Amino acid sequence: MTATRPTTVSSAGPLLAGRTAVVTGAASGIGLAIARTLSSHGAAVVVADLDGAAAALAADDITESGGTATAVEVDVTDERRVQTMVDHAVETYGGLHVLVNNAGITRDASLPKMSLDQFRAVVDVHLQGAWLGTRAAAAAMREGGGGSIVMISSTSGKTGVFGQTNYSAAKAGMVGLAKAAAREVARHAIRVNVVQPGLVRTPMTEALTPEVWRQKVSEVPLGRAGEPAEIADAVLFLASDLSSYVTGTVLEVHGGRSM
């Protein structure tokens, strides 16, 4: 099968009208911002998260704002539950067109102090979870005639971060996964791309001490941290037909911090 350019690429209406998107780790933070943005551009959104109650609240919030959303409790390291997540999207909305692999955790420690369990937990959620999601979503998208898969990596996977050998390795692995998958599924009109956020204002980063926060912000040429909505806008570009000729690409969204 040879992928063809979409017949229309227009910003005049909702960019994702008539499409279904699954976002993992979408109950809060960057994932929630992504879910809201995709919904605001017409997508029916499946809010997937390990915290099922929080996912339900997020889906209700999107629905009350005029969008279409449902919630699924999912452990992205569990093959069966990931498949159930994808099946839910297809059965509820008639297909799957966008998957955002956003779910993630941290278990920071220096190399001598990091346990094998801490290393495996982070790699399993970020990398194995993204692989399971990509595999299941690509099968559904192939049946539906194409789609877009977006990995949420991190500049930690490009530069490495002290105390995050697990996280940096997993985030770098997501780039390799995306590029290899992009080659495999392109013939089915499925695109796979990566967004690498830098310093973003989230509950996790706001827990940093004021001194550490100021130091990190000082490293950003634009002079500020990013907002979750700015990451969501990058995902929207890659999810929509505006990026119809973009696949296997890493889009860095970091205010110039990792140039």
User: Biggest sheet, open or closed, and with what strands and sense?
Assistant: 7 strands, parallel
Number of strands: 7
Strand order of the largest sheet: 3-2-1-4-5-6-7
Low-confidence stretches: 7-11
Pfam families: adh_short_C2
Protein name: 3-oxoacyl-ACP reductase FabG
EC number: 1.1.1.100
GO molecular function: 3-oxoacyl-[acyl-carrier-protein] reductase (NADPH) activity
Structure notes:
The protein is of the alpha/beta class and 259 residues long. It has one domain: Rossmann fold (3-Layer(aba) Sandwich). Helices cover 44% and strands 15% of the residues. The protein has helices at residues 29-40, 52-64, 79-93, 116-144, 156-159, 165-185, 210-218, 228-239; strands at 20-24, 44-49, 68-73, 98-101, 147-152, 190-197, 250-253. Strands 3-2-1-4-5-6-7 form a 7-stranded parallel beta sheet, sandwiched between helices. Mean pLDDT is 94; it is low at 7-11.
